[in-house]
């Protein structure tokens, strides 16, 4: 199946996993977090392979059922076995509702093409609607909203500043695991939301480039590999929706043609 992200760290700290970089896993603080002067959180037990049995909502196993948790580990974001998505809770419902709202009213306005009314409707109405039926897309929206919040001066009370990185890492990893599983057994009815999930993953990776260090300079290999993975996913999904008049991804790709399609970009009218 197509590779999505190039995974650099599975058992490293939450920050390194969110940035898709190698973590040396030194404790209590890894070298990368020490260099950036930020909190280092290990939210996975050593030796965990990051596997997950969850898949797309309505097409495989649903979210884990609500299970009451007690003790410090259930509430401490730095606890080894803490898993943000392991249980349903009132806090989680409110957080995700507010992140979804933030995506529709704030994040979408910063994505190119927002000034096209049809594209605006797709991003603010249709994509959130698809996310209600395709859980990888919902988690991708959560992850992108969190990385967007991390660059704002005010987190709007949705999350505490110290929670942004490890919660963003949890949503991102959930997206990747579920999306890989769904793509591996793709069906026509999820081809459209799966395409948008890949688009949002590419936006997340692009936004995360701001975290890169430039001295010494290293090319953005992870981002380039992720873009290649997105194109591989499109090669799988697009044949399912190419002739579907209701597929929203077709509208987006057609509107992007003047900017990315060589036959349009270099047409005679543009050469004059």
From TrEMBL:
CDD domains: GAL4. Residues 12-42 form the Zn(2)-C6 fungal-type domain. Residues 45-85 are annotated as: Disordered. One of its GO terms (molecular function) is zinc ion binding. InterPro entries: Fun_TF, Sterol_Uptake_Regulator, Zn2-C6_fun-type_DNA-bd_sf, Zn2Cys6_DnaBD. Residues 62-73 have a biased composition (Polar residues). Keywords: Nucleus. The keyword Nucleus applies. This is C6 transcription factor.
